[in-house]
Design a protein that fits this description.
By secondary structure, chain A is an all-alpha fold. Chain A is about 70% helix and about 0% strand. The longest helix of chain A is centred in the N-terminal third of the chain and has 30 residues, at about 35-65. The chains are: A mainly alpha, B alpha/beta.
Chain lengths: ~200, ~375
């Protein structure tokens, strides 16, 4: 178990080990929902929220149920079920208690169930042997990292609407190219802090 | 042993999650009784909150047109929500024009009832009923088109305007869906509804209807549609149909000659080959009885050697252009594929028809 501070893990998860730009997880909703900054911000916030909480729940389930019973291999299927159920629950709570937040966030929640970055964050936290506090830092950081990436992308996409993109590259191809360039730019943070 | 624990743990976790969700749903998704006010107090309803506006209206026997079964993918269930509908959702915007958004038009299947809600529904739609019927007969018109006649059982009569349509309920793997078909039986034929259905490969509705046998029960809602036939007998009627676009034309023409035997009416029908022709004999007989009815069929494909054809050739809009004189008081009804409608619209506008006198239905 590493003794890196949870704060460092948080910063690293946003910049040096951005779950989207270094692991390329959660690409489908990243490409599909990045045409407007407002939508991207809503989706990113929802991802951050769900990711923080599901990594913690999955941490507890893994370390208190699956691991003691030597059922570590069940983690994939169990984590998926937990994420799906949790997203449903959050959707109901938000819809009931904050209609305003529901209309801003809630419509993105069903999209998140199948976002692989959420499952990825839960699995990374287990593979890297994080403590509970480190998991909290990592889950939140990975969510914020995803949010930063999609908002940057949406900002670029909005500007690109006025640029003259060669026809074969318009749409998804140019989005992939931009993601690559962004990933390379984020490599500039490497060396600042390192987590494995 | 390990397998047993694995199964138990996974089963236990899933059951716990499911239980949690059921409990949460019980306590969270409970909006109490909400009021649904339609057309400012004409029929105030009290119903349980949490359901969609579309299903609430259906359970109160108000049948808004909807083809996709409430999945937000057809955009047919538009109604005006004056208040209580919540903000416009991103799932609705693709189906609404700017002016519709300004006048509070919403998709009924996306609006959830959470509070007292005030909606406006055109009186035409308030008259739509759910019909139970049985198949009276099935007739093959061409290789892929059938005429199907439904005898009404409950209610026993239908009041329709020529050109209106019904929505037939067809089963699908994801629950019942509704598909729209124009009524081809005339308005005075009040105890039955006749349809003309072309088999679309893989189509849910047309496959279902083509598999129906005599005596089978069917369920449909109707009548819908905004075709208004001008009652003034001095106004000429122009009907232009292509493919299955014949159904409303048959209804219009037979309804006209029931009441006004001398009214001038043009029927243009476009098909590809002689194989696609149907109802030509019926209409020729009717035209012999009523000389003011002009029946013109046009074949768009070239004739195969040795075939006999004394009608028009080429696309149907060319036939329209050739036969109609300009600047006569007319009303036109067009049904068929979109390119045909567009071409005929241009021809009719050149002939001096105002846009408000042209009714059309594009079959996609």
């Amino acid at each position: 178990m590493s003794d890196t501070s949870a704060w460092i893990i948080l910063v690293a998860a946003v910049f040096t080990n951005n779950i989207l730009l270094s692991n390329f997880l959660g690409m489908c909703s990243f490409i599909a929902c990045s045409s407007q900054v407002e939508t991207a911000l809503g989706l990113g916030t929802a991802v951050t929220f769900v990711m923080t909480l599901t990594t913690m729940i999955n941490y507890a389930i893994y370390h208190f149920v699956l691991h003691p019973l030597q059922l570590g291999h069940l983690q994939f299927i169990v984590f998926i079920a937990v994420i799906a159920a949790f997203v449903q629950l959050v959707e109901m709570i938000v819809e009931r208690f904050s209609p305003k937040l529901y209309f801003a966030l809630g419509i993105f929640l069903p999209l998140i169930t199948v976002n692989c970055a959420i499952l990825g964050a839960s699995l990374f936290a287990i593979i890297r042997n994080y403590t509970f506090v480190q998991t909290l830092g990592f889950g939140f950081g990975a969510g914020v990292g995803w949010l930063v990436a999609i908002v940057l992308m949406a900002g670029l996409q909005q500007k690109m609407r006025y640029s003259d993109i060669p026809k074969p590259f318009a749409g998804v191809p140019v989005a992939m190219i931009i993601t690559c360039v962004m990933a390379m730019a984020f490599m500039g943070f490497a060396g600042m802090v390192t987590i494995q | 042993m390990l397998y047993l624990t694995a199964a138990l743990v996974f089963g236990g976790l899933t059951a716990a999650l499911a239980l949690g969700l059921i409990v949460a749903e019980r306590f969270l998704v409970n909006y109490g009784i909400c009021k649904l006010d339609i057309n400012a107090g004409e029929t105030p309803l009290e119903l349980e909150g949490g359901q969609t506006l579309l299903s609430a209206l259906y359970s109160n026997e108000i049948f808004i047109p909807s083809a996709c079964g409430g999945k937000g993918s057809c955009g047919h269930c538009k109604i005006t929500v004056d208040s209580g509908g919540g903000p416009l959702l991103p799932t609705e915007t693709p189906y609404l024009s700017r002016s519709e958004i300004r006048s509070n038009v919403r998709l009924a299947c996306q609006v959830k009832i959470r509070e007292d809600i005030f909606v406006r529904i055109p009186s035409d739609l308030m008259d739509v009923k759910l019909f139970n019927a049985s198949v009276e007969h099935v007739r093959k018109l061409t290789h892929d088109t059938r005429e199907v006649r439904f005898k009404l059982a409950e209610p026993i009569e239908i009041s329709q305007r020529p050109g209106q349509y019904i929505q037939v309920q067809a089963p699908s793997p994801e629950g019942p869906v509704f598909r729209a078909y124009s009524i081809s039986s005339p308005a005075y034929d009040i105890n039955a509804v006749e349809l003309m259905v072309r088999l679309v490969p893989g189509g849910i509705g047309s496959t279902y209807i083509h598999e129906l046998q005599e005596g089978d029960p069917v369920t449909f809602t109707g009548p819908y549609g905004e075709f208004y036939l001008n009652d003034d007998p001095s106004v000429e009627i122009v009907c232009v149909g292509g493919g299955c676009g014949m159904a409303p034309m048959k209804n219009i023409i037979y309804s006209i000659y029931e009441n006004t035997p001398d009214r001038v009416c043009w029927l243009f029908f476009g098909c590809r080959t002689t194989e696609d022709i149907f109802y030509l004999e019926e209409f020729t007989t009717l035209a012999e009885k009523h000389p003011s009815l002009k029946v013109i069929y046009a074949l768009s494909d070239e004739l195969i050697d040795g075939q006999q054809w004394d009608g028009e050739t080429g696309f149907v809009h060319l036939a329209v252009d050739k036969h109609l004189e300009a600047n006569i008081d007319r009303q036109a009804f067009l049904c068929g594929p979109p390119p045909m409608i567009d071409a005929v619209m241009r021809v009719l506008e050149d002939k001096g028809l105002a846009e408000q006198n042209i009714f059309y239905d594009k079959f996609n």
